[in-house]
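Project channel, design review

CF: Before we commit to the Parahaliea maris constructs, I'd like one complete example in the thread so the newer folks can see what an input/output pair looks like. Taking Aminopeptidase P family protein.
RD: sounds good, go ahead.
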Amino acid sequence: MALKRRDLFKAGAAAGSLAMLSSGAAHSEPARTLKPITGDVEPISVSERRQRIARAQGLMQHLKIDALLLEPGSAMLYFTGISWWRSERLTAVILPKEGDITVITPFFEEPSVRESMTFGDDVRTWHENEDPFALLAGLFREHRLSSPRIALEGSVRYFVVEGIERSLPGAHLTGGEAITRACRMLKSPAELALMHKANEVTLTAYAHVYAKLEKGMQPEDVNAMMRSAQAELGGSGIWTMALFGEASAYPHGSGQPQEIREGQIVLMDCGCAVEGYQSDISRTFVYGEPSAEQERVWQLVRRGQDIALTAARPGAAAGTVDDAVRTYYTAQGFGPGYQLPGLSTRTGHGIGMDGHEQINFVQGEETPLVEGMCFSNEPGIYIPGKFGVRLEDCLHMGATGPVWFTVPPDSLAEPIGKMGPAIEA
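CF: and here is what came back for Aminopeptidase P family protein:
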């Protein structure tokens, strides 16, 4: 009996044929223990973080904003390097329109917060029986601002709004996305290099896991393998999703029991972080021999990715990328528009320190594409009651056009793909 295509891939992978993941040597062989590949990464420098703050302060002055308030999360990490978590106790960074940052945190947290700081020295603490927002009010009084205009980063919680309004009744609160988005949307070479490495971790893990898929496995088995592989390779903030058969027709899955069977779709959507920067890659396999319909839909989705890549030209409105893919799918009998069977989601989303960032490849988005923007490219086709196919690879906008972080595969016979061009930080 002839070997099936997946058996050939598995044998070849075990023998070291995964060198196609990059233009150099293979990063791993599935039969061996995986080793970290993140030892050469360069964290974001203090100098770059200070440049980000200077850019934000310039925008604040232009917008007549006195201060930007950040809670723990990706925005705080982006501007300050402070890695912290959210609780009912306020920890916040106040970024003024000029001068150094101020950190407000509980008294008992100060030593730990300072460990995470890479610059700045103004840390103001409050005890459990005190009001942290009184510290905030005092800070603005020091600057002789009785009615400050305070911008809030988009994820700031409502109890913070209430606290500011109570302690600073003259304050004018406004959204801070015009500041934070303008800074974070355009990635520097150092950021792109970290995203490239995060994608390398995830793609290498896919090759490792694909060769180990077995009949009868359940989603938790595959997810566990993928989490372990990414962790061994040096990724953090790991997330995975594995969907089999009909469940693959629903982009974010189903709670119905699933296990791998012959001729069945296996759709995986996985990612990790390296120094806080994200990957997001989807792959669709068939366990055993694909049907003619599975093969056709897979190739349509792969063509959809190329259409999106071609449409993503510098200066084009982001929404036109989605339009181009949807026009093609409609001509192939899917849709129309966002209707099923077809592409019921946007074609892609922004990505960076958060897995989903603005701007999106979605109908009606008029923001022009410029160098430094990063997106997923994932024009899946979903057929309720049957299966779905999603191929997702991320790209960054270069000076002359889009550049893949990971280059998608060309066929179900070799369904992993390879790394895009290396990026110098």
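RD: helpful, thanks. The longest helix spans residues 189-210.
CF: The radius of gyration is 24 Å.
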